[in-house]
Amino acid sequence: MELSYNRGTILIRGDVRIPNSTWDERSKRLRAMALHYNDIVDYLKNSKVVFTDNVLDLIPCPELHSNIILRDYQKQALDAWILNSKRGVIVLPTGSGKTVIGINAISLLNTPTIVVVPTLDLLDQWRSKLKEELKVDVGKLGGGEQEIKAITVSTYDSAYIHAARLGNKFGLIIFDEVHHLPAESFKQIAEIFAAPFRMGLTATYERDDGLHSELNRLIGGKVFEKKVKDLSGEHLSPFRLQKIAVELTAEEQNEYEHNQGIFTDYLRRCNITIRTPLDFQKIVIRSGRDPNARKALLARNKARDIALNSVSKLEKFREILKKHADSRLFIFTEHNKLVHIISKEFLIPAITYRTVTKERGEILDRFRSGVYRAVVTSKVLDEGIDVPEADVGVILSGTGSGRAFIQRLGRILRKKEGKEAVLYEIVSADTSEINTAKRRNKALR
Amino acid sequence: MLTSDLLVTKSSKGKIEPVYAKLDQENLEISGSLIDLFHEHIGKTYGELIEEIEGIEEMDYRLIRGLTQLLERKCVIEMNSVLEPATARRSVFEDCKGAVSDAKERKEVIDRVARKLSVEPDAMEKALWADMEENLIIKEFQTITPEALLRQYNLSLT
């Protein structure tokens, strides 16, 4: 009986029936997804079958040590993960130190580890943190580089491409922002890697499409969770959420109703109800063929723009800006147009998806060091960029997706002595934006 | 080649085929007026051009956007600014510490930085966002006949 690793699968030589394996006619062997490596070994041991295990071919690894002292909830999270055979997902809010838990797990297992992250910014952050804490060279896979070391940080894209080649080189695999993993292509990373120990980290376990149920199979399900409200006050600074509904001007209101009317009329005529973003997407697809769908869509966009860019909203924002003259403000809005309007009108440094990395880095550095006291931004900071502390947050619009909201909220929740953070949410009264705000708040509970 | 969202196709008996634009009077007119629009906007901003095109694209938006894509490739587009926009922004944000709360304060900041960099306040204002796509200037446009444009369009559908 012999087990070996072959391009993403476990090859089984021998004549024992093994769960999760299938007969491969070409190689005349049993094969199983590398994902099941751990189960297969367990099964063979329990069945008292004698076997040689040639699956893992680990990269030689220096002694790993870290001196990080974990906060109590971080310790609890790590213990829960260890109890679950060192597999599973830890759910903690942004800013609560998920990286630290990952690093502790690495030093504890003292085994070669690959950390998989969604963005290049996160890749750099993990690498510098790992270097600092473990005092070892850290490999990099992604952004055009392929440097494989005992501790390596990779993007999801690169891990996917190189999975078959690297799948048996690591004992532990850590997925940061693990809610990305259940995507059709990315989930193959978890299937192709044989690493018996697996950790997922995220602030938001649930996916809108329900695919998070896949994580049970891929990593081992949720083992620990704390929400923002469980931690705020104690470890994150307390914050106050203040919702402000502003009225559109009479002219805006008319214009809004007119356009929104065109859209709802169309929905009624075609018997469509919109419950999820997917329903909406269907109309977008229809608009390619049906001129009326297109008209309805354009009208809706127009209505949304009116509600979004309402003069009264900007005035409200001006008040907040004046009231918090000594504060550090972080302003979120999902719409690049509005980012630009705010940047132009209030001379606030802006970061959008178009901002080049150099300028973005400079703006964040200067915000951190206090040269700038405000930054306005759209989606790009949703994930992973280490955002400097702020004590006032302002949301001017949003998609209503719970995940995006929590992660943005997390940005201003960094603990600072004797400070109460405020998060303002400015929405237009009597428009569909109120629903968006409601949907968002649900995710907080 | 056009981006895939602009391809017009029909499928019959499991085959997908492009739908070519006819060289009829109506299409020739659409093609011609787009070419005119591009001509008229030499020296103006890309944003102004796109706004005008969006105004007429209701007629047949895939055709019009497709033709626009082809015409854009015949343009030389450049940035119009006396200052490097990123530098201009940095100076302004530095001066106001990253926020002003009213128009008066805003004007003072712009004027002060303009003086420091020895440019007119107007030029300063323009320079701040000159690198945004909609503020780029169409410098040259290499013309084409309406018929040739439609032929090129049909070719790029294939």
Q: Give the beta-strand count of chain A.
A: 19
- Tell me what the CATH architecture of the largest domain in chain A is: 3-Layer(aba) Sandwich
CATH superfamily of the largest domain in chain A: P-loop containing nucleotide triphosphate hydrolases
Report strand order across the widest sheet of chain B: 1-2
Rough outline of chain A: globular
* Alpha carbon gyration radius of chain B: 21 Å
- Low-confidence region ranges of chain A: 398-403
Distance between the amino and carboxyl termini of chain B:
8 Å
Q: What's the tally of helices of chain A?
A: 16
Give the termini distance of chain A in whole angstroms.
52 Å
Residue-averaged pLDDT of chain A: 83
Give the tally of structural domains of chain A: 4
Count of all domains of chain B? 2
Describe the structure.
- The complex is a heterodimer of chains A (445) and B (158).
- An eight-stranded mixed sheet of chain A has the order 9-8-10-7-11-12-6-13.
- The longest helix of chain A is centred in the middle third of the chain and has 21 residues, at 250-270.
- Chain A folds into four domains: 2-54, MutS, DNA mismatch repair protein, domain I (3-Layer(aba) Sandwich), CATH 3.40.1170; 72-226, P-loop containing nucleotide triphosphate hydrolases (Rossmann fold); 239-247 and 310-442, P-loop containing nucleotide triphosphate hydrolases (Rossmann fold, 3-Layer(aba) Sandwich), CATH 3.40.50; 250-308, no CATH class.
- In chain A, helix 2 packs across helix 3 (98-109).
- The radius of gyration of chain A is 25 Å and the shape is globular.
- Chain A has helices spanning 37-46, 72-83, 98-109, 120-134, 156-166, 187-192, 214-218, 228-231, 250-270, 277-286, 291-308, 311-323, 336-346, 357-369, 402-411, 433-442; strands at 2-6, 9-13, 21-24, 29-33, 52-54, 87-91, 113-117, 139-142, 145-147, 151-155, 172-176, 197-202, 222-225, 239-246, 329-332, 350-351, 374-377, 392-395, 421-428.
- Chain A has 16 helices and 19 strands.
- With 445 residues, chain A is α/β, with parallel strands linked by helices.
- Chain B folds into two domains: 4-79 and 136-157, no CATH class; 85-128.
- Chain B has helices spanning 25-40, 46-56, 61-72, 85-96, 103-116, 121-128, 146-157; strands at residues 9-12, 15-18, 75-78, 137-141.
- In chain B, the strands form two sheets. In chain B, strands 1-2 form a two-stranded antiparallel sheet. Chain B has a two-stranded antiparallel sheet with strand order 3-4.
- The mean pLDDT of chain B is 87.
- Classes of the chains: A alpha/beta (445), B mainly alpha (158).
- At the A-B interface, helix 12, helix 13 and helix 14 of A face helix 4 of B.
